[in-house]
């Protein structure tokens, strides 16, 4: 008598992804409504960011104030990458903000060099594992309009990627990263980068396995994310890795560069929303 084992759909997707069969997924598959809001639920993601002491003011505080202004019910997680005790104490007073301290001791030494940005994919993965859907925004940026479009995109697509900061990613892409990943740098000529400072993620299996896990794995390997000779003059570290992995994933990813009008890269210089930060109790 034959016996049959029922394998969960999620397990099948992960196995197919591991063997490369999900490279046939196209945009319509990515936008399948796998995640559906509960009745009355509008917010689709938790906003996450990280900061050290120099980016606390005005950058981090202004970002939180802008979210309090434009999406007051949004949960925010702030990761401590080197804040002072006084700054930590203030973060803990902010409404709807959860404080987390990054444990550098758990990871390879190169993550301590904040300028490699290797800590970012590690944080993103941990947050996706915790919250299912998250949006990363650099602490030097801010929100300048309603976030409802972002919520809708996350419900529909399960990811958010944007472009617009360059027209050719190879201008700031170290060849040794490509060699480590088994890719040719020339294959990315005249392809724009996907922004490292603003990206949304979910735990949909094909996105998780084809994008997030390779990005996370690269971040843990110095030869991948920060190869010898790489600097900001010739490489963009987390952004470079995200870009080449996205183009090589086999997924038909649609950049939503129109969101640049909502998310503003202010490079730690904007103070418009400092007075909008709300304190606990909320």
Automatic annotation (TrEMBL):
A Pfam family hit: DUF1647
Native species: Lingula anatina (Brachiopod)
Gene name per UniProt: LOC106160006
Protein name (database record): Uncharacterized protein LOC106160006
Source organism superkingdom: Eukaryota
InterPro entries: DUF1647 (IPR012444), Nucleotide-diphossugar_trans (IPR029044)
């Amino acid at each position: 008598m034959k016996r049959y084992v029922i394998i969960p759909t999620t397990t099948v997707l992960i196995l197919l992804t591991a063997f490369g069969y999900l490279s046939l997924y196209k945009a319509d598959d990515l936008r399948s409504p796998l995640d559906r809001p509960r009745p009355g639920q509008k917010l689709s993601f938790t906003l996450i960011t990280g900061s050290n002491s120099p980016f606390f003011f005005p950058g981090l505080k202004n970002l939180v104030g802008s979210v309090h202004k434009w999406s007051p019910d949004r949960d925010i997680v702030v990761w401590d990458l080197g804040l002072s005790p006084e700054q930590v104490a203030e973060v803990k007073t902010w409404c709807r903000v959860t404080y987390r301290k990054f444990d550098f001791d758990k990871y390879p030494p190169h993550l301590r060099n904040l300028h490699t940005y290797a800590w970012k994919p590690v944080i993103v993965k941990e947050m996706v594992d915790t919250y299912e859907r998250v949006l990363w925004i650099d602490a030097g940026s801010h929100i300048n309009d309603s976030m409802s479009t972002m919520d809708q995109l996350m419900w529909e697509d399960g990811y958010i990627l944007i472009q617009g900061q360059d027209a050719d990613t190879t201008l700031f892409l170290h060849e040794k990263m490509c060699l480590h990943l088994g890719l040719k740098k020339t294959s990315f000529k005249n392809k724009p980068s996907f922004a490292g400072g603003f990206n949304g993620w979910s735990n949909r299996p094909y996105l998780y396995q084809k994008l997030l896990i390779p990005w996370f794995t690269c971040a843990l390997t110095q030869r991948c994310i920060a190869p010898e000779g790489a600097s900001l003059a010739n490489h963009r570290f987390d952004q470079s890795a995200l870009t080449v992995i996205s183009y090589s994933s086999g997924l038909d990813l649609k950049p939503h560069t129109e969101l640049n009008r909502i998310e503003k890269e202010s490079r730690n210089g904007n103070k418009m929303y400092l007075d909008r930060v709300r304190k606990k109790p909320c």
